[in-house]
Design goal:
This protein folds into two domains: 184 residues, Metallo-beta-lactamase, Chain A (4-Layer Sandwich); 125 residues, Rossmann fold (3-Layer(aba) Sandwich), CATH 3.40.50. A seven-stranded mixed beta sheet has the order 7-8-9-10-11-18-19, covered by helices on one side. The protein has a six-stranded mixed beta sheet with strand order 1-2-3-4-5-6. Strands 14-13-15-12-16-17 form a six-stranded parallel beta sheet. It has 331 residues and is of the alpha/beta class. Helices cover 23% and strands 25% of the residues. Helix 2 packs across helix 3. The two termini are 37 Å apart. It comes from Paracoccus sphaerophysae.
Length: 331
Protein backbone atom coordinates (compact mmCIF):
# COMPACT_ATOMS: atom_id res chain seq x y z
CA UNK A 1 0.00 0.00 0.00
CA UNK A 2 1.09 3.57 -0.67
CA UNK A 3 1.90 6.06 2.07
CA UNK A 4 -1.06 8.10 0.80
CA UNK A 5 -3.37 5.34 2.03
CA UNK A 6 -2.24 6.02 5.60
CA UNK A 7 -1.90 9.82 5.58
CA UNK A 8 -3.03 12.32 2.98
CA UNK A 9 -3.85 16.02 2.66
CA UNK A 10 -7.44 17.27 2.91
CA UNK A 11 -8.90 20.79 3.11
CA UNK A 12 -8.94 20.39 6.92
CA UNK A 13 -5.31 19.23 7.10
CA UNK A 14 -3.37 15.96 7.06
CA UNK A 15 -5.73 13.03 7.72
CA UNK A 16 -4.96 9.48 8.86
CA UNK A 17 -7.95 7.29 7.91
CA UNK A 18 -6.76 4.21 9.81
CA UNK A 19 -6.61 6.14 13.07
CA UNK A 20 -9.39 8.56 12.07
CA UNK A 21 -7.49 11.66 13.20
CA UNK A 22 -6.07 14.85 11.74
CA UNK A 23 -2.69 16.46 12.41
CA UNK A 24 -2.71 20.24 13.00
CA UNK A 25 -6.12 20.67 11.34
CA UNK A 26 -7.08 24.17 10.25
CA UNK A 27 -10.77 23.70 11.11
CA UNK A 28 -12.60 21.91 13.96
CA UNK A 29 -12.47 18.10 13.65
CA UNK A 30 -13.54 15.19 15.90
CA UNK A 31 -9.96 14.18 16.76
CA UNK A 32 -6.76 16.22 16.36
CA UNK A 33 -3.10 15.61 17.06
CA UNK A 34 -1.26 18.93 17.56
CA UNK A 35 2.47 19.49 17.02
CA UNK A 36 2.80 22.81 18.90
CA UNK A 37 0.93 25.80 20.25
CA UNK A 38 1.30 28.42 17.49
CA UNK A 39 -2.06 29.61 16.25
CA UNK A 40 -1.63 28.37 12.68
CA UNK A 41 -1.18 24.80 13.97
CA UNK A 42 -3.18 24.74 17.21
CA UNK A 43 -6.79 25.84 16.95
CA UNK A 44 -9.69 25.61 19.37
CA UNK A 45 -12.93 23.73 18.82
CA UNK A 46 -11.80 20.13 18.23
CA UNK A 47 -13.68 17.23 19.77
CA UNK A 48 -10.53 15.64 21.20
CA UNK A 49 -6.89 16.77 21.23
CA UNK A 50 -3.72 14.77 21.78
CA UNK A 51 -0.54 16.83 22.28
CA UNK A 52 2.36 17.24 24.67
CA UNK A 53 1.44 18.42 28.16
CA UNK A 54 3.08 21.80 27.57
CA UNK A 55 1.25 22.33 24.27
CA UNK A 56 -2.07 21.53 25.95
CA UNK A 57 -1.30 24.00 28.74
CA UNK A 58 -0.26 26.66 26.22
CA UNK A 59 -3.50 26.13 24.29
CA UNK A 60 -5.46 26.53 27.53
CA UNK A 61 -3.68 29.84 28.18
CA UNK A 62 -4.41 31.09 24.69
CA UNK A 63 -7.96 29.79 24.21
CA UNK A 64 -9.32 29.03 27.67
CA UNK A 65 -9.65 25.75 29.55
CA UNK A 66 -12.53 24.55 27.35
CA UNK A 67 -10.64 24.82 24.05
CA UNK A 68 -11.51 21.18 23.16
CA UNK A 69 -14.08 18.56 24.15
CA UNK A 70 -11.42 16.33 25.73
CA UNK A 71 -7.63 16.44 25.93
CA UNK A 72 -4.92 13.87 26.44
CA UNK A 73 -1.26 14.53 27.14
CA UNK A 74 1.23 12.55 25.05
CA UNK A 75 3.23 10.67 27.67
CA UNK A 76 4.82 7.82 25.74
CA UNK A 77 3.61 5.80 22.73
CA UNK A 78 -0.10 5.19 22.24
CA UNK A 79 -2.10 3.25 19.67
CA UNK A 80 -5.04 4.84 17.90
CA UNK A 81 -7.05 2.62 15.59
CA UNK A 82 -4.07 0.39 14.89
CA UNK A 83 -1.68 3.31 14.38
CA UNK A 84 1.25 3.63 16.77
CA UNK A 85 1.70 7.28 17.71
CA UNK A 86 4.57 8.95 19.55
CA UNK A 87 5.75 12.53 20.06
CA UNK A 88 9.40 13.63 19.73
CA UNK A 89 11.02 17.05 20.39
CA UNK A 90 11.03 19.47 17.45
CA UNK A 91 13.26 22.25 18.87
CA UNK A 92 10.82 24.94 17.70
CA UNK A 93 9.08 26.30 20.81
CA UNK A 94 8.26 25.03 24.29
CA UNK A 95 6.25 21.81 23.99
CA UNK A 96 6.74 21.47 20.23
CA UNK A 97 6.91 17.94 18.85
CA UNK A 98 7.28 15.87 15.74
CA UNK A 99 4.61 13.19 15.49
CA UNK A 100 5.67 9.68 14.49
CA UNK A 101 3.03 7.40 12.98
CA UNK A 102 3.55 3.66 12.65
CA UNK A 103 0.37 2.21 11.08
CA UNK A 104 -0.13 -1.54 10.92
CA UNK A 105 1.06 -2.73 7.53
CA UNK A 106 2.24 0.71 6.50
CA UNK A 107 5.33 2.93 6.41
CA UNK A 108 6.66 4.90 9.37
CA UNK A 109 5.69 8.54 8.82
CA UNK A 110 7.08 11.50 10.76
CA UNK A 111 5.19 14.80 10.63
CA UNK A 112 7.73 17.34 11.80
CA UNK A 113 5.44 20.34 12.22
CA UNK A 114 7.74 23.37 12.55
CA UNK A 115 11.23 22.44 13.70
CA UNK A 116 14.66 23.92 14.30
CA UNK A 117 18.08 22.39 14.84
CA UNK A 118 19.78 25.48 16.29
CA UNK A 119 20.08 25.12 20.11
CA UNK A 120 17.24 26.96 21.82
CA UNK A 121 17.51 27.78 25.55
CA UNK A 122 13.73 27.71 26.07
CA UNK A 123 12.78 24.31 24.63
CA UNK A 124 13.99 20.74 24.21
CA UNK A 125 16.35 20.16 21.25
CA UNK A 126 15.26 18.64 17.95
CA UNK A 127 15.53 14.87 17.85
CA UNK A 128 16.18 12.90 14.64
CA UNK A 129 13.49 10.25 14.13
CA UNK A 130 14.19 7.60 11.44
CA UNK A 131 11.26 7.14 9.08
CA UNK A 132 10.10 6.04 5.65
CA UNK A 133 8.21 9.27 4.95
CA UNK A 134 9.27 12.64 6.36
CA UNK A 135 6.82 15.54 6.25
CA UNK A 136 8.87 18.73 6.43
CA UNK A 137 8.10 22.42 6.51
CA UNK A 138 9.85 24.68 4.00
CA UNK A 139 9.34 28.11 5.59
CA UNK A 140 12.88 29.07 4.63
CA UNK A 141 13.24 26.49 1.87
CA UNK A 142 15.49 28.46 -0.51
CA UNK A 143 19.31 28.58 -0.64
CA UNK A 144 19.32 32.31 0.13
CA UNK A 145 18.25 31.60 3.72
CA UNK A 146 21.33 30.91 5.85
CA UNK A 147 20.63 32.17 9.35
CA UNK A 148 23.48 33.67 11.39
CA UNK A 149 24.43 32.61 14.91
CA UNK A 150 21.69 33.85 17.30
CA UNK A 151 24.36 34.79 19.85
CA UNK A 152 25.98 37.13 17.31
CA UNK A 153 22.61 38.75 16.57
CA UNK A 154 22.05 39.20 20.31
CA UNK A 155 25.43 40.93 20.65
CA UNK A 156 24.28 43.36 17.93
CA UNK A 157 21.25 44.21 20.07
CA UNK A 158 23.34 44.80 23.18
CA UNK A 159 25.83 46.88 21.20
CA UNK A 160 22.98 49.10 20.00
CA UNK A 161 21.71 49.48 23.55
CA UNK A 162 25.19 50.60 24.61
CA UNK A 163 25.48 53.01 21.66
CA UNK A 164 22.04 54.57 22.26
CA UNK A 165 21.60 54.39 26.06
CA UNK A 166 18.79 56.97 26.09
CA UNK A 167 16.58 55.22 23.51
CA UNK A 168 14.25 52.37 24.40
CA UNK A 169 14.88 49.30 22.27
CA UNK A 170 11.55 47.78 21.26
CA UNK A 171 12.00 44.23 19.98
CA UNK A 172 9.13 42.66 18.07
CA UNK A 173 8.94 38.95 18.85
CA UNK A 174 6.12 36.43 18.56
CA UNK A 175 4.44 35.94 21.94
CA UNK A 176 5.03 32.18 22.07
CA UNK A 177 8.61 31.04 21.79
CA UNK A 178 10.42 33.92 20.12
CA UNK A 179 9.85 36.44 22.92
CA UNK A 180 11.15 34.05 25.55
CA UNK A 181 14.06 32.95 23.38
CA UNK A 182 15.19 36.55 22.88
CA UNK A 183 15.05 37.11 26.62
CA UNK A 184 17.07 33.96 27.28
CA UNK A 185 19.65 34.89 24.64
CA UNK A 186 20.05 38.35 26.15
CA UNK A 187 20.61 36.77 29.57
CA UNK A 188 23.17 34.34 28.13
CA UNK A 189 24.97 37.34 26.60
CA UNK A 190 25.41 38.83 30.07
CA UNK A 191 22.63 41.41 30.30
CA UNK A 192 21.10 41.10 33.77
CA UNK A 193 19.13 44.36 33.88
CA UNK A 194 15.34 44.59 33.75
CA UNK A 195 13.52 43.55 30.59
CA UNK A 196 10.08 45.03 30.07
CA UNK A 197 7.21 43.07 28.57
CA UNK A 198 4.19 44.16 26.58
CA UNK A 199 1.05 42.73 28.17
CA UNK A 200 0.43 40.40 25.24
CA UNK A 201 3.62 38.42 25.95
CA UNK A 202 3.37 38.47 29.75
CA UNK A 203 1.27 35.36 30.44
CA UNK A 204 3.14 33.04 28.11
CA UNK A 205 6.44 34.33 29.50
CA UNK A 206 5.18 33.66 33.03
CA UNK A 207 4.36 30.13 31.90
CA UNK A 208 7.94 29.56 30.74
CA UNK A 209 9.16 30.69 34.15
CA UNK A 210 6.68 28.32 35.79
CA UNK A 211 8.23 25.53 33.72
CA UNK A 212 11.62 26.23 35.29
CA UNK A 213 13.14 28.45 32.59
CA UNK A 214 15.08 31.27 34.26
CA UNK A 215 14.49 34.58 32.50
CA UNK A 216 15.69 37.06 35.13
CA UNK A 217 14.21 40.44 36.05
CA UNK A 218 11.01 40.92 34.04
CA UNK A 219 8.74 43.93 34.41
CA UNK A 220 5.59 45.21 32.67
CA UNK A 221 6.08 47.87 30.00
CA UNK A 222 3.44 50.17 31.45
CA UNK A 223 5.19 53.51 32.07
CA UNK A 224 7.32 54.43 29.03
CA UNK A 225 9.01 57.41 30.68
CA UNK A 226 10.48 55.07 33.28
CA UNK A 227 11.97 52.59 30.80
CA UNK A 228 13.70 54.75 28.20
CA UNK A 229 17.07 53.26 27.43
CA UNK A 230 15.83 49.81 28.43
CA UNK A 231 14.81 46.71 26.53
CA UNK A 232 11.14 46.08 25.72
CA UNK A 233 9.73 42.90 24.18
CA UNK A 234 6.41 43.17 22.33
CA UNK A 235 4.44 41.16 19.77
CA UNK A 236 4.73 42.29 16.13
CA UNK A 237 1.10 43.48 16.18
CA UNK A 238 1.96 46.13 18.79
CA UNK A 239 4.07 48.04 16.28
CA UNK A 240 0.99 48.80 14.19
CA UNK A 241 -0.90 50.17 17.20
CA UNK A 242 -0.82 53.48 19.12
CA UNK A 243 1.11 51.71 21.89
CA UNK A 244 4.44 52.26 20.16
CA UNK A 245 3.84 56.02 19.97
CA UNK A 246 4.15 56.24 23.75
CA UNK A 247 7.92 55.87 23.46
CA UNK A 248 10.18 58.79 22.59
CA UNK A 249 12.47 58.01 19.64
CA UNK A 250 12.69 54.24 20.18
CA UNK A 251 14.95 51.86 18.30
CA UNK A 252 12.56 49.57 16.45
CA UNK A 253 13.81 46.01 16.15
CA UNK A 254 12.30 42.71 14.99
CA UNK A 255 13.56 39.21 15.74
CA UNK A 256 12.64 36.91 12.86
CA UNK A 257 14.19 34.80 10.14
CA UNK A 258 12.38 37.07 7.72
CA UNK A 259 14.64 39.95 8.76
CA UNK A 260 17.21 38.41 6.40
CA UNK A 261 15.05 39.96 3.66
CA UNK A 262 16.12 43.58 3.99
CA UNK A 263 13.16 44.81 1.95
CA UNK A 264 10.83 43.43 4.64
CA UNK A 265 12.77 45.24 7.34
CA UNK A 266 12.64 48.55 5.45
CA UNK A 267 8.95 48.11 4.70
CA UNK A 268 8.18 47.76 8.40
CA UNK A 269 10.45 50.60 9.48
CA UNK A 270 12.82 48.31 11.35
CA UNK A 271 16.01 50.08 12.36
CA UNK A 272 17.66 47.02 13.92
CA UNK A 273 16.69 43.76 12.17
CA UNK A 274 17.69 40.65 14.14
CA UNK A 275 17.83 37.44 12.11
CA UNK A 276 16.78 35.02 14.85
CA UNK A 277 14.64 32.15 13.62
CA UNK A 278 12.87 29.22 15.25
CA UNK A 279 12.76 27.34 11.93
CA UNK A 280 15.38 25.38 10.02
CA UNK A 281 17.18 27.38 7.36
CA UNK A 282 18.26 25.99 3.98
CA UNK A 283 21.48 24.29 5.21
CA UNK A 284 19.61 22.68 8.12
CA UNK A 285 16.76 21.54 5.88
CA UNK A 286 19.06 19.84 3.41
CA UNK A 287 21.25 18.44 6.21
CA UNK A 288 18.17 16.89 7.83
CA UNK A 289 17.01 15.23 4.63
CA UNK A 290 20.51 14.00 3.87
CA UNK A 291 20.86 12.45 7.32
CA UNK A 292 17.39 10.93 7.57
CA UNK A 293 17.36 9.77 3.94
CA UNK A 294 13.66 8.78 3.96
CA UNK A 295 12.06 6.94 1.06
CA UNK A 296 9.77 9.92 0.50
CA UNK A 297 9.78 13.60 1.45
CA UNK A 298 6.51 15.52 1.68
CA UNK A 299 6.93 19.31 1.73
CA UNK A 300 4.49 21.78 3.21
CA UNK A 301 4.00 25.50 3.94
CA UNK A 302 6.81 27.49 2.46
CA UNK A 303 9.02 27.30 -0.60
CA UNK A 304 7.72 23.84 -1.48
CA UNK A 305 8.79 23.72 -5.11
CA UNK A 306 12.36 24.77 -4.38
CA UNK A 307 12.89 22.04 -1.81
CA UNK A 308 11.17 19.44 -3.97
CA UNK A 309 13.55 20.33 -6.79
CA UNK A 310 16.56 19.91 -4.47
CA UNK A 311 15.24 16.49 -3.45
CA UNK A 312 14.90 15.42 -7.07
CA UNK A 313 18.49 16.49 -7.79
CA UNK A 314 19.63 14.44 -4.80
CA UNK A 315 17.71 11.27 -5.70
CA UNK A 316 15.01 11.70 -3.05
CA UNK A 317 11.37 11.17 -3.97
CA UNK A 318 9.46 14.28 -3.01
CA UNK A 319 6.10 15.95 -3.44
CA UNK A 320 4.53 19.27 -2.38
CA UNK A 321 1.41 18.96 -0.19
CA UNK A 322 0.08 22.49 -0.89
CA UNK A 323 -1.70 22.67 2.46
CA UNK A 324 -3.21 26.07 3.25
CA UNK A 325 -3.76 27.92 6.50
CA UNK A 326 -0.27 27.67 8.02
CA UNK A 327 0.96 31.20 7.38
CA UNK A 328 -0.71 33.07 10.23
CA UNK A 329 2.34 34.78 11.60
CA UNK A 330 5.97 35.65 10.86
CA UNK A 331 7.14 33.23 13.55
Amino acid sequence: MRADDFLHPTPAGLYCPQGDFFIDPVRPVPRALITHGHGDHARAGHGAVLATRQTLEIMAIRYGEGFAGTTQAAEGPVTIGGVGVSFHPAGHVLGSAQIRLAPEGGPVIVVSGDYCRTPNPVCAPWEPVPCDVFVTEATFGLPVFKHPDPAAETRRLLASMAEFPDRAHLVGAYALGKAQRVIALVRQAGHDGPIHLHGAVQRLTDYHVEQGIALGDLRPATVPKEIEGQLVIAPPSAFASPWVQRFRDPVISFASGWMAVRARARQRGVELPLVISDHVDWPQLTQTLTELRPDEVWVTHGAEEGLVRWCELNQLRARPLRLVGYEEDEE
